[in-house]
Every structure is written in structure tokens, then in C-alpha cells.
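Researcher: I'm preparing a figure for a lab meeting and need a structural model of a single chain. I don't have an experimental structure, so a prediction will have to do for now. The sequence is pasted below. Please return the structure as C-alpha cells so I can convert it later.
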Amino acid sequence: MSATTPANPTTAPSAPGSPRDLVGIGIGPFNLSLAALAHGLPEPLDTAFYEQRHAFHWHPGQLIEGTRLQVPYLADLVTLADPTSPWSYLNHLRDRQRLFPFYFTERFHIPRTDYDAYCRWVSDRLPSLHYGHQVDAVRWNPQLALFEVDFTQLDADGEAEALGRTHTRNVVLGIGTAPYVPEPLRPLADAPTVPVVHAADYLAHRARLLAADHITVIGSGQSGAEIFLDLLRARPAGRENLHWLARTEAFAPREYSKLGLEHFTPDYTRYFHALPESVRDRLVPSQWQLHKGIDADTIAAIHDELYTRTRDGSWPQATLTPGVTVRTAGRLADTQIELHLRHDQQGTRTRLTTDAVVLATGYRERPLDQLLAALDPHLRRDDADRPRIDAHYRLDLDPAITRTGSNIYVQNAERHTHGVGAPDLGLAAWRSATILNALTGTDPYPLPTRTAFTTFGLPTQQADGATRGPDGTLVDLKG
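Model: Understood. Here is the structure written out cell by cell.
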């Protein structure tokens, strides 16, 4: 099928006698990448990907006009594994007759709305994708030596329409992340009287937020910065009434130097995976500026907007305060919110009254335990009771399962084993290719052996006399 032919997927489940090769759970960019690369294999796989939503959406609440992707357009679903794929971003532009206009824009970073449109273009055409299907359980059937995947087909209103079961040799989990609301603010977010909105739902509530007299944004990452800038631009000069709070000690830029970005290469991922668990656990929180900082252009735009508003000699009614923790919060007469704040460096406390809150407090990986409850006896866990995941993104399962050739793969649930690159779009195609190479036992997508100029560790001498690099691979010290 060509990339411009609309898909017409069937929802028929597979029978035990004709199991699928791979079932994907969740359709975000990462499983969409895997589905696109699987579609291009010379020896086709029987695949099905299930998603409970009825269409592809990529952070619809944060597609603010003018915001751009933080990775280059080459970090699409396929290019860094297969530049010849018909599912590339450039082929999407060609199909939309936008290739020459894009050429003349001379921009490496594309609008987020364009990335969302590109992903929807791919999802509308791949025949293996099944929307409106909620996966309820995954279990291992030892008699069949297959995984059983139970799902519920949902109607347009989200109500159960039919039940189904698919049998498969392999499963890939791409269930993504969920908006995170800090404990002190959860009671406020659950009550509808005064708007307390997570950044994931910002655009749906933007008009209501702008109608509030005073707005507080909590969170110092890229989302918080983009929302603060959007609100600032929409408020009249002298009546901005905005407060931006951050737990970090500064509104810090994201690390975007060329050598710093090498932490998002396969080389660093392999190095990180080979480290002891205790070292990995110390590293992840210390590397927050690699992925939680603000891009320099957004910081500059905020400063420029604030500076423009000093033209008449007054300062804008906008307060930016880093180093602050929200201790507790409550409602005042159902019309306002009171935030109890602590400044960590000063050791001081105060209260802030506001009329609306936007929580740019990030996302957390969705736990796998409920979905994989039936497989719990077969799962191997680390010292912190997290699933162990090998270098090829496979869960560490009972050998009684894996020696049959069956595996469960994960996407964007492996930060504790693979590092800060786990949620990064730039590693999507490489991870998908790694999974398909491991699953097929062949090399349909040859991957580079070196991707960074940085060597992230020292080679070590083994008892057998061999010298191995920090990722465990053999090293030629003369090379």
C-alpha cells in the first residue's frame, strides 16, 4: 500500500491457530513509529495496534499557535532509521504539495501543529491501527505458548460495544504518560468552581482562564513558559495580573549545546543501560536541564514581551518567582484560590491569592501493573520493584515465556533503565528499529554502531583479557 492510500483496517481478532506476530497497546508517536516501520518490512509481520481514543491526537491542549517542536523535523517517525520510508515527514509535505514552501522557510524546527498533522496523516493510512479499542488485560497462555490480549471495542460515546481477544507472539506497550498534579493541588483540580487546569487541557480552557482577573502558572519547564507567554501576549499592558511560580532555582534554559545533545544518542542510551541501578537512579533527577529546561527562543520571547511593556516607564503586572514550593492550597469562598508558598532558599513562607491556576507540572509514566496484573508472577523486578528492561526494550520475563520466542517490549516506560532519552522524539525511529530487529531476529534496519563524538565512560579490562567499552561492547584500543 502506498503512503497516500487511506487505510481500511479490520477489527477482527486473531484466532489461536493464526496468532499475530505483534500487538501494540496504545497509539502515540512511539507506537505509530513502530507501526510505520513494521509496515515497510520486506517480510511482512501480522500486526495490530489498539488505542482507546477514536483518533490520533498529540497533546491537543498544548498546540499553542506559534509553538515549535523542540527537536528537528528529521526526528519524525521513521527517518533516523529509514530515510527512504514513505512515512517520512518530507513525504508527508510532498503529498500535501508543501515541499517547496517548506524548502523556502529554511527552518529545522517545525510548528507543533504541523507535527500533529503529520502524525495524523500517517495514522489515517496505516492499516494496522485500530482506534476505539480499549485493552483490558494481557496474559500468557502456556498451553498455546501465546499472549492473550483482551479488549473492549468502544462506540463514539466511549461505551462498550463489543468484547474481543487477540492472540499474539509479541506485545509492545506504548501507553504513554499521564498529566501529573502535585498532591497539594489535587483537591483543587477535582473541584470545578474555580479553574485549576493542567497544561494538557490548556487550550480547551484558555478563554475561561483569560476571563479571570489574576492567573497563576505553576511549573518552570517548556510548557509553563509557553503558556505564560501566551497569556502575557493576550493580556492588556498594565493589567497583566500574572504570576509564574517555579520550584527550580531559576527559569533555566534547556541544555542545547551540540555535545550536550549527545545524551540523546543511542551511544549514551547503551552507556546508561550498562550502569549499576543505583547510579542510574542518581543520574536521572540530576539531568533535569537536559529535558525539562526552556528553549532559549521562548525565554527570549518572554523577556522581549516584558521589556516592550516597559515603554511608558512602568513595569508590567507580571511576577516571575523561581525557587518556590506550593506547600498546601485551598479555596476562598468558591471564587478564589489561596496558595501557601515556601521559598526554599530564604526559608520564608507566604500566601498568594489568585483566581485561576494552570498546572504546568509535567507528566508521569503510566504504571504497567494494572494492565500486566495477570503477568506479575512472570515479571522480574529491580530493587525498587520496577520492571527490568533489557537493552532491546524487552521486559525481563520468565524464561518459560522468552524461550518460546515471545516477548513484551516497552516504549517510553524505561527511563529508569535507558535514561533521559526514553521520552525523546529523536530516538523514536531508532528504538522502533531496535525492537523490530530483535523481534524478527534479522537486521531489516541496519543501525549505526557509533552515534556520538563523546565517549561516555572508560573501557575496562575483563578477566578473559578482552577490553570492553562502558556499554559492554568489545573495544579495539588501537582504533
